[in-house]
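Please predict the structure of the following assembly.
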Amino acid sequence: MFLRQIDLTTALRPLLLPDETLLFVQDSIGLYEGKYKIPHYQNGHAYLTSHRACYVDNEEPRKYSVAISLKEVERVEFYAGFLKSSPKVTFFPKLSKRASLSLRGPNSANISNTASPRTPPARYGSPAHSLSSPTPQVSVKATWICPICSFSNPVPSNFDPSTANIHTPLPPCLACGIKPPLVHVVKATISSMTNRQSAPIAPVPLRPQGPAGNFAPSTSSDNLSDPFATPTYRCPRCTFDNDPALVSCEMCGTSLVAMDRRLDLRDGVNRVESPGPSLGSAPLDHDIIESIKFSFRDGGEKIFHERLKGAMVQRKWLLESAPPVPKPGRNSGTFDDGPYAGSGESLDRNKSVGIAALERRGMELRKTNELVIGNAFEDLEALMTSAKEIIALAEQFASQRNITNGNTTETNALVSQSASALGLVTTKDMLGSGSNSLYLSELSRNLAEFLTDDARGILRKEGGIMSLVDLWAIFNRFRGGVELISPTDFEKAAQLWDKLKLPVRLRKFKSGLLAVQGRDRTDEKTIASLQSWLNSLHSIPPPDKVSWDWTMFGKGVTAQETAEHFGWSVGVATEELEMAEERGVLCREQSFDGLRFWENWIVNLPT
Amino acid sequence: MSTEQNPKPFHFPPHHSFPPFFTLQPTSSTRASQLSSWSALILSYCAHHRLFSLRFPSALALPLFCNEGLGRRLRAGDVKAVLAWMGSAEGGGRVEWVDGGGKKGVGTGTGEGEILGEEGLTGRCWVFWRRAEEWAAVVEEWVERTGQKGVVLTLYEIGEGEGTAGEEFHGMDGELLRRVLGVVVKRGRAQVFGEGDGLGVKFF
């Protein structure tokens, strides 16, 4: 699974994993597998992140979006383009896969073994790779069951059971929010892996028992040298030659079933290597891929390649399993270690109680902060590594300042939370050279994400609709004074929402006011809610005596009443009422006490 | 002749007691529906009370335009717009202003009526709850029924005479009657002679 289906945000951008940052975006990208174009993956955006290279299709982003995990990439090649051929960046998967790939042809056993006779055994013989080499990553469909609420959660796609340790960040349960024990997730992952591996495999007896030539893929070069020897199946872990009928190694108990997958893959090889301008099917289904090319039809390849090289050198994915920055313990010199730190502290805390303890805790906190800040600013490198802590501290200070000033409006809170989302923001230097339209479309997606983020709930707080100017102000404050957006760019980006099929829309009122609202809040829905409200007035006797038959006609409502009822501003209520009137749903009555809107009984004459 | 001659009360349709009915709607589809409702209401009201013409501004006080119970009235400008619409081709030419109309401030198009909206509404207009052609047919049918073909009748006899007391056209304004007879003459079914009040007509 070199290419992996990815999750997208509401704005149809790749959902970034924890700690993942966006490095570069480029549009007009096509994908190749080997020499051949992959159908449906020919026009999209490339998103380079610190962990992945993603392709998001323009037409059907939910269906055709894939990513290459950089940690599975062996090397990257750059092709500058020639005449009509676009520049390309080629990703080669790690050797283990390519080795098995080269074994796939009918005669491939001989070829591969003569070409590099020692490589495959060396790989498989290495215990470090024994667990992860056939499928070093979990299937995206792996799930773990929460032990608290038994909700079935997906295992994060970057979770690797072979390297996971107590410091690996685990997402909490989606339903109850309780973090699972690591062991639990690892177990679930492994079991799903074995399920997946054994699924396509028939029961043991069906495994080919023929001449040893067929069996060469078992990577034993001994078999080659003596083709008529008793067929054996070499354990990848302990190199013990097992009887082919066995499912697991006689010596060490390693599952041998997984190895059979390479036999299946032989069938796939003809299809892959059959000549043709493009492949018959998307390569997501089969695991073995020679190489994936990103074809840059609209430039940007140089920066992409530069940043990609940088990311490959930085290897940020290694940080996932790295322990957090050590914190000084109670006794200087010893370091508390991850989960044990909490228990140690609580033991100590029990010794002192009351105000003294509180003061002491405060003191400790300040000391830690001091240390973190001190370390961070020692040099730039250190600042980069401890960026997360510094941001957390900065936010904490910001919120404290707000509390002391006593002006904690919601917008202020919003701004102070901003730093945590910096990774999501597209800046002009992240994008390919000179493509202003790409900048706008990315900005448009940024905005949509910003608006639809449930954690912030900007639209909800504003009653589901807010003016574009307000949004512009909040968004620029949210960017923290960096890379501010010009009003022109902002309006253009907002106008792209419709084109990009994003979940928010720009609405232009008759007065010319531009407002932002969710796509799901259509005029039809607004009208329906207005109608049901007016309809309900037929059964509620009006407070004052009225001269008309209220059971038949209901009651006229003013914009003021509508605004109160729906929680809109009066301006919005007026616009919505007039919109409904224009659609012929409502009609107006201009009377002494102002403008009232009624259900349109003029057209739908009551009998 | 805006006096009511029918003792039976007119039964107003339900939308006459719907408050927004008395505000001319800005939305075109709603407005079209409203105008045709008003037109139908005015025609049936005039037919009920045998009103051949409406004289303004006194007609504005009719229960037709002013629903006392509801406390709503159709403003003069809106009445003008409604009547103008009724006089237009769209409204079927059911209203025609006497004395040329236009100089009295109401044209035949809805737009013109709106522009002049707030000015005082004066003058008299025909309300053709039957068109002149339809009246001609009714008169001819009466002549046929009563066997008066070839007989010379004065206009007074037709309009006010005892012989027509039960007929629909009884009490018809002389001017309108002359128009109706003009239609009959044009069809070649009658001949008008004489002048002034002594105008006579002979059907054949």
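Residues 42 and 64 of chain B are 7 Å apart (CA to CA). The radius of gyration of chain B is 18 Å.
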